[in-house]
Amino acid sequence: LDEWIGFLKTGEIPSGATAPGLAEARECLRVDSLDVADRNDYIRHMENLRYQRSVLDTSRDEGWAEGRAEGRAEGRAEGRAEGRAEGLEEGRAEGRAEGRAEGREKRNKEIARNMLKQGLPIDTIVACTGLTRDSIEKL
Fold first, then answer.
1. What is the C-alpha separation between 12 and 25, in angstroms, rounded?
2. C-alpha count within 13 angstroms, C-beta hemisphere, residue 9
3. Is the separation of the CB atoms in 26 and 13 below 8 Å?
4. Which pLDDT score, from 0 to 100, does residue 77 have?
5. Is the pLDDT of residue 58 over 90?
6. How far apart are CA 111 and CA 117, in angstroms?
7. Nearest CA to 137 among 112, 111, 104?
8. Whole-number percent of the chain with pLDDT over 90
9. 29 with 44: CB under 8 angstroms?
10. Are 125 and 131 in contact (CB under 8 A)?
């Protein structure tokens, strides 16, 4: 605080001053002490630097947005491909399970027919094959 009070009283900043903000104030004093032509050159230079920074920031932001959009598109495509592969695999697994169940039922019906031909009682056939009484009677 004392350094700031000293600056406000005298308009000068000692070289060893460490108070926050005095470095920026020192730069403003330095620019203000330049003659008109040098000050205009300095201002033009600072505007050029700001413009360059703005161009770079804009390019970076646009590149980031473009990269993000491409990444999302690639992610969607990969996700779709993975989803299709998983769907096909699940479908195959379900198909195999259904096929096995149908095969077991067909085989049990064949066994039941053979047992009926042998003259075995329906209760025994039900117990051995797991088929219902109605389905055995229809055979």
1. 10
2. 7
3. yes
4. 81
5. yes
6. 10
7. 112
8. 21
9. no
10. yes
Question: Residue 6, Cβ neighbours under 10 Å: how many?
Answer: 16
Tell me the H-state helices in 20-130: 22-32, 36-117, 122-129
| pLDDT, mean of residues 58-65 | 92
Mean pLDDT of 73-84: 83
- Banded model confidence at residue 10, pLDDT cuts 50, 70, 90: confident
The size of the chain, in residues, is 139
Backbone angles phi, psi at 67, to 5 degrees: -65, -40
Q: Is 57 exposed, middle or buried (0-12, 13-18, 19+ CB in 10 A)?
A: exposed
Separation of alpha carbons 82 and 46, rounded Å? 53
The torsion defined by the Cα of 125, 127, 129 and 130, in degrees rounded to 10, comes to: 130
Closest C-alpha among 95, 90, 138 to residue 113: 138
For 34, which DSSP code?
S
